[in-house]
Amino acid sequence: GKTATVPSADVEFAAFYRAELPGQVRRAFLMLGDNEQANDVVNEAMVAVYRNWAILETPGAYLNRAVLNGCRDAGRRRVTSVRLLRRLAPRDANVPTDVLSDVLATLPFNHRAAVVLRFYAGYTTDEISNALGCAPGSVGPWIERGLAAMRKVL
């Protein structure tokens, strides 16, 4: 009998998917505070990457942008408030996680995203500006304003 061969692009995409999925879902969860929504956003973004796989020079950057935009759109569509970033606090932190979630939930999306990308994902200023599609000069003030707002409450 004949054996089916899997196209090399599919093999490459499968490896990319396995490597990227856990971190992307974690990041989306931090943005949205909802695991099901995070998985939906990441899977939609992965479908877009797969559709464009043959023409993407930097699929990782494309995926990061697609997930971030998906999170921004999901946040805009949300009708009820959801507690965000329940797992951001270090395990030994004295701050109750619910308080941190509530405080982060009050921040504008760009401030919240910049804080999460810097302190959770370890992004540089340039990486944050690329991810959010803004000037690098906006990143610092967004982080500072986000941290200042958090300090007032905490």
Walkthrough of the structure:
By secondary structure, this protein is an all-alpha fold. 70% of the residues lie in helices and 0% in strands. It is built from 7 helices and no strands. Helix 1 packs parallel to helix 3 (59-77), helix 5 (109-119) crosses helix 7 and helix 6 crosses helix 7. 28% of the residues are buried. The model is unreliable at 79-87 (pLDDT under 50).
Which value, in Å, is the CA radius of gyration?
17 Å
Structural class: mainly alpha
Strand elements, count: 0
Number of helices: 7
Largest sheet: none
Q: Mean of the pLDDT scores?
A: 81
Task: For the structure shown, list the relevant keywords.
154 residues, mainly alpha
Brief digest:
This protein is mainly α and about 150 residues long. It is built from seven helices and no strands.
Topology:
Layout: H1 8-32, H2 35-52, H3 59-77, H4 97-105, H5 109-119, H6 125-132, H7 136-153
Helix pairs in contact: 1-2, 1-3, 2-3, 5-7, 6-7
